[in-house]
């Protein structure tokens, strides 16, 4: 069994994305694809060639999650290789959105941003458009085979699927317990805390998932497993994972305390709390709003703060 790390450029602030080539005998599987760009495709071609592999040789592609830096090049790679695509059951609809699902996504984020206290409609519309248009960059190709918790990756049976939602609801990690290797996607990164993005419920009629709480549970899951090295979707490999996860937990707990303090000090809306916590980062509104709402959800669930909804649809915390 061999795992080759391939770093590919992205236009995003995070920098390169790492995709991984798994090779067992003549079985070749690529984990994640990089973004949909000619440059990324050329770098991938070149780096595969260094280990004697052509894009056309790829037999399987596994997606850790639907984000554009991980799944963007899927359409091109499938067209060239005919590879079978494996991912979580939710991934297909996320990378193949319909006009109806996109409209629902816009309505969802409009509801959330209003809830957070962004009452001016024009301001809300532009940010909602920005958040929901994220799916426009997806490489359109369907998922052929779904992978769920406990499944073995076909052709690479030592890799077990671990469901690790939170950063996205369709997030999978792969764990080779014979060698103590974890393929982490964006579940845990060395240099930055992974964001538990606010997302609509995956299924009609369900409540909005409390993504930060879900993320913390899934971090606990990989904390409890014994592994040696983790290969993440960005930055360098992770060896000190328990220390790193404890650090993430501590900073989430600290931020949660700050959220409660801000509410106690009289900040009533999510937007007010967000501005108090991230005065310099309001340009990254979708990120910091996710952070803020995630912590507000958590503290509300713990009974540390309470939430009421005004007639206009704004959530008021106390
Ligand atoms: Zn991601």
TrEMBL record:
<dbReference type="Pfam" id="PF00753">
    <property type="entry name" value="Lactamase_B"/>
</dbReference>
<dbReference type="InterPro" id="IPR036866">
    <property type="entry name" value="RibonucZ/Hydroxyglut_hydro"/>
</dbReference>
<dbReference type="InterPro" id="IPR001279">
    <property type="entry name" value="Metallo-B-lactamas"/>
</dbReference>
<dbReference type="InterPro" id="IPR036388">
    <property type="entry name" value="WH-like_DNA-bd_sf"/>
</dbReference>
<feature type="domain" description="Metallo-beta-lactamase">
    <location>
        <begin position="16"/>
        <end position="234"/>
    </location>
</feature>
<protein>
    <recommendedName>
        <fullName>Metallo-beta-lactamase domain-containing protein</fullName>
    </recommendedName>
</protein>
<dbReference type="InterPro" id="IPR050662">
    <property type="entry name" value="Sec-metab_biosynth-thioest"/>
</dbReference>
